[in-house]
Design goal:
The chain is an alpha+beta fold. The chain has one domain: Cytochrome P450 (Cytochrome p450, Orthogonal Bundle), CATH 1.10.630. It has 18 helices and eight strands. The strands form three sheets. Strands 1-2-6-3 form a four-stranded mixed beta sheet. It is globular, with a radius of gyration of 24 Å. The N and C termini lie far apart (90 Å). Bound molecules: protoporphyrin IX containing FE (HEM). The site of protoporphyrin IX containing FE has 27 residues, from helix 5, helix 8, helix 13 and helix 17. GO terms for molecular function: heme binding; iron ion binding; monooxygenase activity; oxidoreductase activity, acting on paired donors, with incorporation or reduction of molecular oxygen. Belongs to the cytochrome P450 family. Its EC number is 1.-.-.-. Its main location: membrane.
Length: 495
Amino acid sequence: MFLQIAACFTVIGLLYGLVSNLQQNRRLAASLPPGPPGHWLFGNVPPKNFPFIRFAELTEIYGPVFTLRFGRRIVCVVGRHQAAVDILVKHSAETTDRPRAIAASEMLSQGFRILMTPAGERLKKYRRAFHTCLQPSAAATYKPIQYNHAKNYILDCLHDGKCHLEHGRRYAASVVMYIGYGKTTPTSYSDPEVQEVNKCLGRLSEVIKPGAYLVDTYPILKHIPGYASHLWRYGREELALYTRQANAVRKQLEKDEAQPSFAAYLIENQERLGLSNDELAYLSGAIFGAGSDTTAAAIAVMTMAAACYPETQARVQAQLDEVVGSDRAPTFEDEEMLPEVTAFVLEVYRWRPVSAGGVPHRSTKDIVWNGYVIPKGTEIIGNLWAIGRDPELFPDAEEFRPQRWLNENGRIRDDLKYPVFGFGRRVCVGQHVADQSLFINTALALWAFKISQDPAKPIDVLAFTDTANIRPLPFTLRFEPRVKDIEAVLEAHLD
Ligand code: HEM
């Protein structure tokens, strides 16, 4: 008898939940931006592949902001520049938060990973710590090391152009290992330490894919013993790895042998910054996670664009020849005089944005936009792929056309922006370091080489990995030296 009554109450409870859920959905739907219809209970089906491309198609149909529903989760996708500014920049204070990511953040990262840290005290202290080491004046101090590694990239491409993607990855890994841990020697992707970090990042990349784990739709699963227990194990392994790396710097500091680095700064200021050992370990590791593959992918896109758009490449080279010539190599000091290089980089960012789908934000208050209400708790995706294809700002968006970034005087336009580094208070903390990397590698690569395709292996400009941060699938390039004795000229500069 008792069991029957309990069952009755459970069924009534479930029905009540269902009905109130439906009523809530109907109420919300009336004020939300429009979107494709979905199942009355489960909502829309997340795209299986390349969600940013599917979302860009939906932007064409439903407009600058459209709504999707996944179970109880409401997602607004922003696909036009002005709407992104209105919602994610002007309302930055209310959109700093991240959506709850149970599998990727709470289980795999034990809540420590900055990328998924919700708005609040932990995020504030994380970003404060980064700001000190990555703001423009601090970023400028990394220029010499970036230059040295960029020079290695050029020499690697000269001697072994087949492995150009690996050389770009080596550049990026070397720079972030220097900033993160003070490692001064070049870092190879085959280093066991880097391989271990990459194993962890590869796992994250799988777990973070929309719809990868049911627990993100049904949070109760987190508490079911045995459910996705490998995620907890992976999380423990990752924390142990970052702790080992931070402890190595701690030991160097004790022996007075440490190079200046982000980890050293965190350790020396741990108490003042209010960081636990685990937070400190994860934060030091974040530089590699966030800055390595992204930078390498952008460098790869730069070479891809140069090979596929030879006339555009030649335009940059004409300016390099005029300003720099061939007796010396370009340096950071030439930047002001090389707007064609900067325009090329800006177009690389727009044409194939590395963080193509953007990193989701979450509203912590109702936001009124264009007569619609984006309610508190909505996930907001700034779809960078679609924003870079905004026809009002970027006509013929599929064309790689750096000239769109230049004004009639050949200077960089200050009225055109593209948010490749994200939005508002969540904007990428490494943007200045990344800009420096892209500038110097582009300037040196286009000064040193005529980069072209192998006619026998034409490049597919849409062949990219289907991952949270996209990167080109392997492609073949030819590096034809434009400067006599590149090696000697580069060495002379360093002497
Ligand atoms: C071309 C290279 C890069 C691109 C395209 C890029 C892009 C991005 C984007 C789109 C975000 C998310 C912003 C948002 O939520 O709106 C982000 C976050 C982040 N980036 Fe970068 N990034 C690059 C390089 C770097 C580098 C070199 C570092 C470190 C030295 C770095 C560190 C971070 C960190 C720590 C975050 C998380 C910030 C947070 O969640 O509060 N990134 N980046």
